[in-house]
Design brief:
With 259 residues, the chain is α+β, with helices and mostly antiparallel strands. The chain has 7 helices and 10 strands. The N and C termini lie far apart (55 Å).
Length: 259
């Protein structure tokens, strides 16, 4: 056991996680290497098997480990998990990986709602909406394009925010607490403009998440989140129950980016 895993101020399961992460990040355990079993870790750290299991399960959910029933647990290929059924601050996700978060603000303005956006937000066509496009960066590399429409009734100060200091998610979580969320997930071929923003040298499939959020009784936001397909994998579980809502507009009607 190295010094990094001998911090007695940590909970036992956290010390096991720290031990596993240290061995992976140091290169001692390479991708596809089998890690010690729950029983072996329990004996090594003098804890119960359930404690060791919690550490392994959490690292599996984080995408660092992969489990094969009846075979064992192995070091996963290092691709961040995209928690599509949760609504998290991407800046926090990047920081938790020990990386530096940054962003580039492409657009932040007031617009009038097209028919497709009006349907998505449950408002009348021509109503005012706030529109933002941000590029989120992980150690300077683009990992998500966030194209978001906001209902001014739920966040009237949205257009005045400095999103170089906080993400839209962080601001909205404080101003318009989430009561429900709805997702549609699909693989897409991005437009030339989106490819340029994401820094894609050649055409490739991307993961697109269409997300609507509610601050009861209003639909608060409608966002399109696009990730390079070779950088993320999907994972997560529902933490907020969905509620009946109008269907998403036809993707052809959703013109979230500008040429």
């Amino acid at each position: 056991m190295n010094a990094a895993t001998n911090d007695q101020t940590l909970a036992p399961y956290a010390r096991i996680k720290q031990h596993i992460i240290a061995n992976i990040e140091s290169g001692l355990w390479a991708v596809n290497a089998q890690v010690p079993s729950e029983n072996q870790l329990a004996a090594q750290f003098d804890v119960s098997r359930m404690t060791a299991r919690r550490a392994i399960l959490e690292l599996t959910q984080d995408g660092m480990l992969v489990r094969s029933q009846g075979v064992g647990t192995f070091v996963a290929e290092r691709r961040p998990m995209l928690p599509v059924l949760e609504v998290r601050n991407i800046a926090d996700e990047i920081a938790e990986r020990g990386h530096h978060y940054g962003n580039r603000i492409i657009l932040l303005e007031r617009e009038t709602a097209t028919e497709g956006i009006a349907i998505a937000l449950g408002i009348a066509p021509g109503s005012p909406v706030f529109h933002s496009i941000l590029l989120h960066l992980d150690n300077g590399v683009a990992v998500q394009l966030e194209d978001r429409y906001v209902n001014p009734h739920t966040a009237p100060g949205y257009i005045e925010q400095d999103f170089s200091r906080q993400t839209p998610n962080a601001y909205l979580s404080r101003i318009a607490p989430l009561s429900a969320v709805e997702h549609t997930i699909e693989a897409i071929l991005p437009s030339a403009q989106v490819s340029a923003w994401l820094g894609l040298d050649s055409p490739q499939a991307c993961l697109q998440v269409l997300r609507r959020t509610w601050t009861a009784p209003h639909i608060a936001t409608f966002a399109r989140l696009i990730h390079p397909g070779d950088s993320y994998r999907l994972s997560g579980y529902a933490t907020v129950p969905a509620q009946p809502a109008p269907a998403f507009p036809n993707p052809q009607e959703f013109h979230g980016t500008k040429s």
